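Can't attach files on this board, so I'm pasting raw text. These are the components:
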Amino acid sequence: MILETAVFTIHAGQAEQFLEAFARGRKFIEQSKGCHRLELRRGIEEPDTFVLVVWWQTLEDHTVTFKQSSNFTDWRAVVGHFFARPPVVHHYLEEA
Amino acid sequence: MILETAVFTIHAGQAEQFLEAFARGRKFIEQSKGCHRLELRRGIEEPDTFVLVVWWQTLEDHTVTFKQSSNFTDWRAVVGHFFARPPVVHHYLEEA
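---
Top answer:
Structure tokens for the assembled complex are below.
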């Protein structure tokens, strides 16, 4: 299982609305092939940021299957307008 | 429970040695008060980076109790010389 970290910077003052949208949109990630689980958490040092951590079966489950699916389009339609800049995404190998 | 993410950039070519050192040093974090669990994973896009994700009971368990303890000194003595630059550390609130 690989790990994705995505850091979102949200337009100032919109965190509560973003959380409501995320609650509606998370299913588009969770129901995607290879998604084991996810955690979304708000930044302590930078309250306009959130980290989304997703455990995927394979890298391609995220970068190919999800990204090319209607789940991705639907997810971005729900949350994309909250992003003040493009998400910062990294992937990490199996646990050491 | 809060989340810590720490991104380590390791001197080029030392990833295997770092992993061996980490295996010896992880107990200093794991045995610290309030540490629930941790994951260390190597970067896919940037193989000289690693992310350490730690689930702590409280922020202070990391920033005060651990940082002021001999566990922190012992941890850094084992792994610190592998770091090509200071770790990039963020903390995140309870899961949304």
